[in-house]
Amino acid sequence: MAKPAYMTTGVDADLARLIKDGAIFIRESGTTDVPTGTDWTPVGEASQVGYYSDDGFTLAPNTGDTTELTGHNGDVLIAESDPGYWTVAFAGLEGNKATTEAYFDTTVAADGSITVTTAAASKRYDIVTVGLDQKERLILVHYPSVQISEREGITFNRTTLLAMAATFRTFKGGAAAPYHFKAWGLVAEEPSSPDTP
Fold first, then answer.
1. Which pLDDT tens digit goes with each residue over 109-155?
2. How far apart (Å, rounded) are the C-alpha atoms in residues 151 and 127?
3. Where are the alpha helices (DSSP H) in the chain?
4. Is residue 124 part of a domain?
5. Cβ atoms of residues 88 and 168 within 8 Å
6. Which CATH number do you get for residue 161?
7. Rg of the chain over all Cα atoms, to the nearest angstrom
8. Domain span at residue 33?
9. What is the Cα–Cα distance from 143 to 168, expressed in whole angstroms?
10. Which residues contact 7 (CB under 8 A, 6 or more apart)?
11. What is the reported pTM?
12. What's the domain count of the chain?
């Protein structure tokens, strides 16, 4: 049998992505500098995480609970799922103010010290992640309201980089950003013109 034409015409290696570089910004919740596209530029760099681990950063879905309604014979007739949420996770490698304050859920004092009184994390943040692929195409994702849901322990030894690794749970933002996250650049194809059918 001859190979069907769709096996060769339906693929495009130019659309494959490999993230070669990136940046992460942790900002105060309610920051008004809301990205509107991949041409966004941060106002100041004080919120930048700087170096993070070579595992990069991950975006993962967490689906909500599902309620199933069955018929008389046990067949599932309706399955309704709660909206759920997303998580964004990374390990910051720099002991800078932005990373330290977020990881420990506290404030860095004028003398550089931190005072930690609880292991709970209750502060909300605004995060922007940016990735640059092998063809210099940007992927920018804005998370308007996140809160730490999980943290990895910090290892202090001479063979491991000191890292502050955390997973942030997403929530919908306010009126200016009513979403869990908004992303630009995930679709590598050139957008169709309005005249294209």
1. 999 999 999 999 999 999 999 999 999 999 999 999 999 999 999 99
2. 16
3. 6-9, 97-104
4. yes
5. yes
6. 2.30.110
7. 21
8. 20-37+46-63+82-182
9. 10
10. none
11. 0.88
12. 1
